[in-house]
Model the fold of this input.
Amino acid sequence: MKNIDIQTLYKLLFADYPDIVTVRQLQVMLGISRHAAYDLLTGGSIRGLKLSNAYKIPKINVIRYVVENGVQPAARAAGS
Done:
């Protein structure tokens, strides 16, 4: 994927979310269960950093996953 495409999508997709998201935020972003979120992280589909017992996930990695896999993101706001 081209760098310009990623920059454009970064501004449009999940604009209400911070640059680094939690597993809970990932669940809401994709509309998936906690188990599915951890499966994506531990399986390497979405790359994140595990610090102690919590994952920190760069939002750009979630956007790449959505674009590359044709996933329909959930239509919920960040505050939900």
